[in-house]
Design goal:
InterPro entries: ARM-like, ARM-type_fold, ARM_PUB, PUB22/23/24-like, RING-Ubox_PUB, Ubox_domain, Znf_RING/FYVE/PHD. With 446 residues, the protein is an all-alpha fold. The protein is built from 23 helices and 3 strands. Helix 4 packs antiparallel against helix 5 and helix 18 crosses helix 20. The radius of gyration is 32 Å and the shape is globular.
Length: 446
């Protein structure tokens, strides 16, 4: 009887232990070494094996080979007999199974990666585009161009494969084949420009082809009356062309409406990317690195469009990139007397320039000093030197220029800064003003 009682009590005690909730315990799961990429030490999503037998994550090893230009195995240092990684389906399947088993610990199953685009696939698409182009199948060409763009965006490897198989040439020829005058062609032309922006930078053959009169006219036409995205892509392509080859500037400027289209993107901005590209394109036109006979004529045209006033307004509140490019263009416009006259007449010019000194970047400081120096010389030539000096001193220019000489700058900027200090020093007794907030967060190395 006592034995039965003890058995029942032991059973009740066991049930209490069984039903009692244990406190939550954090369990840390370690990713197996086999599943980690030797480069990033993170869980591999697309494991591939090199000729040395070592497995890496595709993204990391392709960056090592193609972007860094290495031809050796990252782990062993052995020269690779083949630069083409081979998918390791066994490891990938093991990683997927492990992720499923450890789903409760926050590991989601990695998706099976799509097979990379092959050269054969690209060649077939391009051949179809050429055939459809010959038959005037606009919709079919547009659909395939969109497909190419999507493939380019998949990975850097896909982009290299697509570019190396002649895609830029086919896109450029297709751009020339379809005339913008036919309204049915507008969408495919804009799509081609969109595709060209994702395969930047261009090789020499592509740039030479896009400099053709027909291609340039199409780009300018879209830049003028295209959709917002079309105008954005057109100026991105144009910026690339002007940045890498300035021997064709005159051909571009002869196209009707080309200058006005660029200026309009500044006067009526679409987005920061478009504004930056437009400013850079104009910068190469007003400050060419080569001898350009029409430079003064171009600058005069931009001045007549009100570009000086717009640039000064932008300087009041803009990002670093826009500020640097806007000042670069403004300095180019101030390379002729008419540009200096426009800048001098604007009440915001000198305060905006002084405000940018030592606040944004070294290049904005150099541009600002250069423009202030040119304005000072211009004012002196028209007998109004004191006006510029007084206005600059009132907004704290003297102290900033003096500090600039101490924190370091290029020899040309230092020379111009010294000239400004000499000229303004003669008028310091007439005004006493400084914006102390400009120096609040400035790191002084002395």
């Amino acid at each position: 009887m006592i034995s039965a009682y003890r058995n029942r009590r032991a059973e009740r005690h066991a049930n209490k232990i069984k039903n009692k909730k244990l406190p939550d315990v954090e369990v840390e799961v370690t990713v197996p070494e086999l599943f980690r990429c030797p480069i990033s030490l993170e869980l591999m999503k697309d494991p591939v094996t090199l000729s040395t037998g070592i497995t890496y994550d595709r993204e990391n090893v392709e960056r090592w080979i193609y972007e860094d230009g290495k031809n050796t195995c990252p782990v062993t240092g052995v020269v690779l007999t083949s630069l083409e990684p081979v998918p390791n389906h066994t490891i990938r399947k093991m990683i997927q199974d492990w992720c499923v088993e450890n789903k409760s610990y926050g590991f989601d199953r990695i998706p099976t990666p799509r097979a990379p685009v092959s050269s054969g696939q690209v060649v077939r698409i391009l051949s179809t585009i050429v055939a459809m182009r010959g038959n005037g199948n606009v919709d079919g060409v547009k659909e395939l161009v969109v497909k190419i763009k999507d493939l380019v965006k998949e990975s850097e490897r896909s982009k290299r494969c697509i570019v190396s198989n002649g895609t830029p040439r086919v896109l450029r020829e297709t751009l020339e084949a379809f005339s913008y005058e036919n309204q049915e062609n507008v969408l495919v032309l804009e799509e081609i420009l969109s595709c060209l922006t994702v395969i930047l930078p261009f090789d020499q053959e592509t740039k030479s082809g896009l400099w053709s009169n027909q291609s340039l006219r199409t780009i300018v036409k879209i830049l003028t009356v295209g959709s917002l995205s079309g105008r954005r892509n057109a100026v991105l392509v144009l910026k690339e062309l002007l940045s890498t080859d300035q021997t064709k500037l005159e051909e571009f400027t002869k196209i009707e409406g080309s200058m006005e289209a660029l200026a309009k993107l500044i006067m009526e901005p679409i987005d920061p990317t478009t504004t930056n590209a437009s400013l850079l394109a104009i910068y190469h036109l007003v400050t060419p690195s080569i001898s350009f006979n029409q430079k003064e004529t171009l600058i005069t045209r931009f001045l007549e469009m009100g570009l000086t006033e717009r640039l000064v307004e932008m300087l009041v509140d803009c990002t670093r990139g826009v500020c640097e490019k806007a000042l670069g263009v403004l300095e180019g416009l101030c390379s002729i007397d008419e540009g200096l006259k426009k800048a001098y007449a604007n009440a915001l010019t000198i305060p905006a320039l002084v405000k940018k000194l030592l606040r944004v970047s070294d290049i904005t400081t150099e541009f600002s000093v250069s423009i202030l120096w040119k304005l000072s010389k211009y004012a002196k030539s028209i007998g109004e030197e004191e006006g510029v000096a007084i206005e600059a001193l009132q907004v704290g220019a003297f102290q900033k220029i003096l500090l600039l000489l101490q924190v370091g700058s290029s020899s040309k900027t230092k020379e111009r800064a010294c000239d400004l200090l000499k000229e303004w020093n003669l008028h310091r007794g007439k005004v006493e003003c400084i914006e102390s907030m400009d120096f609040k967060n400035l790191n002084r190395p002395f």
